């Protein structure tokens, strides 16, 4: 949707150096928003590349290096975006990690680390964004990364599944509390998206099942009605809708974009 003629809205996308986050950032820029992109320090160069791609489209772009599990860093990130781009209207809490192993082999430390990014990170981004939007007094769109495993477990993704299930609950709770401020809160639930994260999951699943690399993705692809795994743009087009006024009457939802995958 073109927003020409109006003061551009501003989006912040976390975990945007690559994969789904990058796809979302580029799509929101194409929709006419100015976009701040976030990732961890190790991905600074890739992050700058994404900001350059956005700037080349004529939209304003800025980069914020921050770990979303760190409360002070998340608060500073939101303040920096509001200071540099004037406001914050759309928060996309996309950053996440996966850990593939049987529950009985997972450690409490690995569990805590995963939760600190996938759940606490989303909570920190949701609340920091909501405070900023309430201060601005003009509503807003808060969007989180869940997954199809927020509805049913997938092999060897126990803690990951628990984190995404919790994002679904958090999204409903936040939607209820912040509706009075004109803020909608929704989440997207991708199926299999061909990114670095899925490459890692595929490799671990293949290892566990004694298959060659690539065999796990072929096996799970056969369960997708639409006959292919998705690309970041498939997810980004739905996030574009969630970020736009077209979705103003939708809140508290976690929606599957999975090509109709059937498993377990
Ligand atoms: P990805 O690994 O390709 O990209 C994730 C990005 O998040 C990376 O750039 C990474 O550096 C960044 N990140 C990780 N920890 C961070 C932190 N603490 N602070 C800031 N940034 C951090 O993954 P992706 O496939 O693009 O996944 C994006 C989101 O979508 C994740 O939340 C993921 O769980 C979810 N998801 C992915 C799939 C899939 O099949 N790929 C399916 C369902 C849900």
UniProtKB/TrEMBL annotation:
Catalysed reactions listed for this entry: (S)-acetoin + NAD(+) = diacetyl + NADH + H(+)
E.C. numbers: 1.1.1.304
Top-level EC class as recorded in UniProt: oxidoreductase
SUPFAM superfamilies from the UniProt entry: NAD(P)-binding Rossmann-fold domains
Listed InterPro entries: 23BDH (IPR014007), NAD(P)-bd_dom_sf (IPR036291), Sc_DH/Rdtase_CS (IPR020904), SDR_fam (IPR002347)
A family per Pfam: adh_short_C2
UniProt GO MF annotations: diacetyl reductase ((S)-acetoin forming) (NAD+) activity; quinone binding
Domain of life: Bacteria
Active site: 160
Binding positions for NAD(+) per the UniProt entry: 39, 67-68, 94, 160, 164, 190-195
Annotated keywords: NAD, Oxidoreductase
BP GO annotations: acetoin catabolic process; fatty acid biosynthetic process
Entry similarity comment: Belongs to the short-chain dehydrogenases/reductases (SDR) family.
PANTHER family: 3-OXOACYL-(ACYL-CARRIER-PROTEIN) REDUCTASE (PTHR42760:SF121), SHORT-CHAIN DEHYDROGENASES/REDUCTASES FAMILY MEMBER (PTHR42760)
Entry protein name: diacetyl reductase [(S)-acetoin forming]
Source organism of the structure: Saccharopolyspora elongata
């Amino acid at each position: 949707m073109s927003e020409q003629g109006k003061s551009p809205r501003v989006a912040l996308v976390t975990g945007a150096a690559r994969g789904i986050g990058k796809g979302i950032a580029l799509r929101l820029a194409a929709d006419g928003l100015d976009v701040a992109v976030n990732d961890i320090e190790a991905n600074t160069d890739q992050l700058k590349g994404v900001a350059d791609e956005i700037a080349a489209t004529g939209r304003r772009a800025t980069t914020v290096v921050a770990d979303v599990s760190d409360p002070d860093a998340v608060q500073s990130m939101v303040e920096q975006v509001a200071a540099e781009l004037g406001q914050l209207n759309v928060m996309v809490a996309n950053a996440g990690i996966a850990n593939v192993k049987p529950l009985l082999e997972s450690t409490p430390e690995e569990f805590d680390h995963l939760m600190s990014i996938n759940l606490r990170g989303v909570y920190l981004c949701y609340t920091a964004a909501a405070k900023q939007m309430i201060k601005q007094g003009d509503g807003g769109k808060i969007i989180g990364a869940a997954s199809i495993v927020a509805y049913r477990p997938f092999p060897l993704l126990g803690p990951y599944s628990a984190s995404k299930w919790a994002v679904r609950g958090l999204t409903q709770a936040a939607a209820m509390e912040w509706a009075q401020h004109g803020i909608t809160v929704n989440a997207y639930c991708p199926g299999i998206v061909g990114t670095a994260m899925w490459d890692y999951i595929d490799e671990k699943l293949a290892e566990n099942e004694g298959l060659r690399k690539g065999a796990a993705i072929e096996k799970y692809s056969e369960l997708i009605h639409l006959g292919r795994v998705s690309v970041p743009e498939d997810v980004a087009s739905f996030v574009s809708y969630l970020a736009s006024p077209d979705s103003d009457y939708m809140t508290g939802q976690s929606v599957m974009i999975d090509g109709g995958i059937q498993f377990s």
